[in-house]
Amino acid sequence: MAMRLSGQWAMRMACVVMAGLGLATARGQTSDCAVASDQALAADLEAATTPHLAGQTAEAVKRWDQAVAWWEQAAQVCQGPFKQRAERNLADSRQARARLLTGSSGGQVCSSSHKDAAGLDLLAEVAAVERRDGDAALLFRKAAVAWELAAERCRGSSQRVAQLRRDRSVEAAANLVAGGGLAASSPVSPPGAGTAPAVPMTAAPPPASVQPV
Q1: Cα–Cα distance between 196 and 90 in angstroms, integer?
Q2: Alpha-carbon distance 120 to 131, whole Å?
Q3: Which of 150, 173, 145, 174 is nearest to 160 (CA)?
Q4: What is the value of pTM for the model shown?
Q5: Residue 145: its pLDDT value, please?
Q6: How many other β-carbons are positioned within 10 Å of the β-carbon of residue 159?
Q7: Residues near 37 by Cβ (< 8 Å), separated by ≥ 6?
Q8: pLDDT (0 to 100) of residue 54
Q9: What is the pLDDT of residue 76?
Q10: Which residue from 16, 150, 173, 199 has the least number of CB within 10 angstroms?
């Protein structure tokens, strides 16, 4: 009888210990969930306010990366509705990061890509005006690549402009290689183009002499 009671008591104690361990684990998971969620929300706030500062796109992307990392951790350690909340916020943060990287029609990444490509186009046109056809063709090819990247990063009208500028740069490079110059692919004309040749002036005849009467 004593042994039976002792065994029952031991089983009860084991259950109590296991329940305590389970409660401690649950509390630990809840604490980890709260910490990860708080950190993720703080990172979201920093990332959301950064794009309003000029020239801070790279920093904003970095902060969205941090927010995504914290929401991923929260989605792993949270349970039930807290896990679902973390997963929703994770999707939102990923989407915000993607929008920042690709840029809208007037996004900073898109604008920067347009600026770089236009700079290469300008250098190519200057080289063509100076009759450095080899350099101009090379620069137009590089400009075409830059415009292609801009088309990938932009949307809407900015994307269409980048695509058209890419085609124009490709055509300009091909014309230069073929020896045809910029032709119609570039609005830049060589110095003096379109100026009528100077017409030599004819000297006026001397006035007729008047004979005295």
Answers
A1: 67
A2: 17
A3: 150
A4: 0.41
A5: 94
A6: 18
A7: 70, 74, 78, 82, 85, 86
A8: 46
A9: 94
A10: 199
